[in-house]
From TrEMBL:
It is a lipid-anchor. GO terms for molecular function: efflux transmembrane transporter activity. It comes from Piscinibacter aquaticus. Residues 1-24 form the signal peptide. Its main location: membrane. Belongs to the outer membrane factor (OMF) (TC 1.B.17) family. This is Efflux transporter outer membrane subunit. The lineage of its organism: Bacteria, Pseudomonadati, Pseudomonadota, Betaproteobacteria, Burkholderiales. Keywords: Coiled coil, Lipoprotein, Membrane, Palmitate, Signal, Transmembrane, Transmembrane beta strand. Residues 387-414 form a coiled coil. InterPro entries: MdtP/NodT-like (IPR010131), OMP_efflux (IPR003423). GO terms for cellular component: plasma membrane. The keyword Transmembrane applies. Pfam families: OEP. It is found in: Cell membrane.
Length: 467
């Protein structure tokens, strides 16, 4: 009897050791990146310079006020918090899936009383350990499902990194927009004060017969236009402040470090670009797409395993007695062992449909991975195009402002001496105000482009990444 039990136990152990040795999933190969070998307009950079993915946001952004805002966002932004909680949910699902590969052992106490043909009652009470329908994973079905769930966990972690990078960039852009609003407000207030003074002088000349009513009405119109611009700038500042408060998850604290001038925000460090094969594969969104592809590839193995026999084991060991009072006394040892093998013969195409679905999902995941690569490539190319042209545009805008300031001074001097008309003077004032506004907007665009380049190159999630 003992020998027979040992033989059966050895057979079970051997089968268990074989479980999971067969993997029917296709061999995973990373698809080739469907993009050019180099980014357009990519400058030659020193090999020793750190890449964006190796440069923490706290090193890239030098503005202390912005650093504080980013830290607040990482701690309080709800989108980032949801992404972190999604990781926990997917990790829990993976733990459940991984538990399917192991037997579940329960402690049980059962009792049954059934009538007999002779009019008596049969009683049976059992207590012990039970294993129910433990599947021997001979063809890797459970292992592939577990690997797919693990890949989804990694994908969710990369998704959180992608959310964090976008959050850091969004806070930086909102901060830049708010600084631009402040600069525009200052320019508009100065212009408003200048036009009020101008209207006072025109009215004085009108009262003394030196100017026409047309000149007076033009000056009044120009003043009201400045008031309109001031109201617009104040409204835009309020909207941008609300957007920044939403990003950091709370109202703006009163103890923030002082804001830097708009011009200082454009002084962000230059970033080396590198080759697409090095840059794009380090981006979290591309890594997320690849992990989803790995999960879809593993699901094919699980679908293929459904065509093969499934072996399950059910057993128990413990005590049994017909009298509840005698159950826990000696000599009542009992055990049961019930293996089951099921081979699919006819399922109306269910398994074939599941396999076709798994393959289709894998092909979709390949296309999504390639789309992620191409989208990332375009984002980098767009940011590089901006870096190539915005610097020249900003310098030209600065030169235009210098020219408009000089023109305005000359026209003002000529007008005071009666050598220039009021129309020339008002036109010069309008052009100066427009040039001042354009410079502020151009500075904001240049700073936001550098922030965008940092984001699309995969920076922003290294040190201090976890909220």
């Amino acid at each position: 009897m003992k020998t027979s039990c040992l033989i059966r136990g050895g057979v079970v152990l051997s089968v268990a050791l074989l479980a999971g040795c067969t993997n029917l999933a296709p061999t995973y190969e990373r698809p080739a990146a469907p993009v050019a070998e180099r980014f357009p307009l990519a400058p030659e950079t020193a090999a020793s310079a750190p890449s964006a993915a190796d440069l923490d946001w706290a090193q890239f952004f030098a503005d202390e006020r912005l650093k504080r805002l980013i830290a607040l966002a990482l701690a309080g932004n709800r989108d980032l918090r949801i992404a972190a909680l999604n990781i926990e949910a997917v990790r829990a699902q993976a733990a459940v899936r991984d538990a399917d590969r192991w037997p579940t052992v329960n402690a049980g106490l059962t009792g049954s009383r059934t009538p007999t043909a002779a009019g008596g009652i049969n009683s049976l009470y059992t207590a012990g350990l039970q294993i129910t329908a433990y599947e021997l994973d001979l063809f890797g079905r459970l292992r592939n499902l577990s690997e797919a769930a693990a890949a989804q966990v990694l994908a969710s972690e990369e998704a959180r990194k992608a959310v964090q990078i976008s959050l850091v960039a969004a806070v930086a852009n909102a901060h830049i927009a708010l600084a631009a609003d402040e600069a525009l407000l200052e320019v508009t207030r100065q212009t408003l004060a200048s036009r009020e003074e101008s209207l006072r002088l025109v009215k004085l000349r009108f009262d003394n017969g030196a100017s026409s009513e047309l000149d007076l009405r033009r000056a009044e119109s120009l003043l009201e236009a400045a008031k309109v611009s001031l109201a617009q700038a104040m409204r835009q500042r309020a909207l941008d402040e609300n957007a920044l408060a939403l990003l950091i998850g709370q109202p703006l604290p009163a103890d923030l470090p002082p804001a830097q001038p708009m011009a200082a925000l454009t002084a962000l460090p230059e970033l080396p670009v590198g080759l697409p094969s090095e840059v794009l594969l380090r981006r979290p969104d591309v890594r997320q797409a690849e992990q989803q592809l790995i999960a879809a590839n593993a699901n094919i193995g699980a679908a293929r395993a459904a065509f093969f026999p499934r072996i399950t084991l059910t057993g128990s060991v413990g005590l049994a007695s017909g009298d509840l009072g005698e159950l826990f006394k000696g000599g009542n040892t009992a055990w049961s062992f019930a293996p089951q093998l099921i081979q699919p013969l006819f399922d109306a195409g269910r398994n074939q449909g599941n396999l076709a679905l798994a393959k289709a999902n894998r092909d979709i995941a390949v296309a999504q991975y390639e789309r992620a690569i191409q989208g990332a490539f375009r984002e980098v190319a767009d940011a590089l195009a901006g870096r190539e042209t915005l610097t020249e545009q900003l310098q030209a805008q600065q030169r235009q402002l210098v020219a408009e300031e000089a023109r305005n001074r000359l026209v003002e001097l000529r007008w005071r001496n009666g050598a220039a008309s009021s129309l020339e003077r008002l036109d010069a004032q309008r052009s100066l105000f427009t040039a001042q506004q354009a410079l502020v907007q151009q500075q904001a665009t240049a700073a936001q482009n550098l922030t965008a380049l940092y984001r699309v190159l995969g920076g922003g999630w290294k040190a201090g990444a976890a909220p």
